[in-house]
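[INFO] parsing input record for TetR/AcrR family transcriptional regulator
[DEBUG] input buffer:
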Amino acid sequence: MSSDAADDIMDGTHSALRTHGYAALTMQDIADEAGLSKAALHYHFDCKHDLLLSFLDRLYGQFEARIADPPGDDPAEQLLSLIETVMLPPADDDPHEFRTALLEIEAQAPYDESFRERLERFDDAFTERIRSILAAGVEDGTFREDVDPDEAASFVATYVRGARTQNVAVGTPLDDSLSAFRSYVESTLLPASAEVDTE
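[DEBUG] output buffer:
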């Protein structure tokens, strides 16, 4: 498959998911969004499931790039930048519809090993990135010396996943969840009297 064709199909999948959601999504919907015939789409992918696996692989590559090097002058700022990057959508994204579709896909994970394996890659990469920032912060004194990077990373990753789910399911504002996370960093991770720069 040429890179242009792959981009068209992946972009079409993204648009179709936003419009139709996961459950109602058809190969024809994706073909229409991609500007292809259904036959052309089936030439590359046997079914919706296989196409969505490739779509998740594409999203994972983009996700890795987004979390690779969060900006910040110290680990506390880098941690906050990382969480903002993951919790808040890009300006050109349509968060509610697309996140709803992704939540539908995530709901299939307990019953679909292929989906589960790919979603676990996102979780593992995110948790490890958090852990590495926390470990660096403990080592250089940015974070308290009694912070366990493994335990804290697991908690933070779980918190972010929960905040995103709450936003999709019941509309809890992500800005509120992010503000609560800043309070957690200041009260639990930073030494007494230290504050994280949120500018």
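[INFO] The longest helix spans residues 113-140.
[INFO] shutting down worker
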